[in-house]
Design brief:
This protein has 89 residues and is an alpha+beta fold. The protein contains 3 helices and 3 strands, in the order αββαβα. Strand 1 and strand 2 form a beta hairpin. The longest helix has 14 residues. The radius of gyration is 13 Å and the shape is globular.
Length: 89
């Protein structure tokens, strides 16, 4: 666990955030919980979450694009709100 914490801290220091994958999470739809940590502390934006079965590399790419091409440029997203044609992926 200490190695995981060190890796997470390194990601926060380098990028300001990191992605956490929790397969088999029975508390979320499709039992897949893919979410970020660090957005609020470093970018003043609520962390993001994907709750669907998705290849981890694809999910990571989606989150990278949303964060780098949108949130870091000032765009904000609200939970429960539908967004169409606003995300550059």
């Amino acid at each position: 666990m200490e190695a995981v914490r060190k890796k997470e801290q390194a990601m926060i220091e380098k990028h300001g955030w990191y992605v956490h994958f929790v397969p088999g999470d029975t508390k979320v739809p499709f039992e897949m919980n893919i979410h970020t940590h660090g957005l609020f502390e470093n970018l003043e934006h609520t962390d993001l979450q994907i709750c669907m079965s998705m290849d981890p590399e694809v999910a990571h790419s989606v989150l990278v694009n949303v964060i780098e091409d949108n949130i870091k440029k000032g765009k904000t997203f609200e939970a429960g709100k539908k967004y169409e044609h606003t995300i550059h992926v």
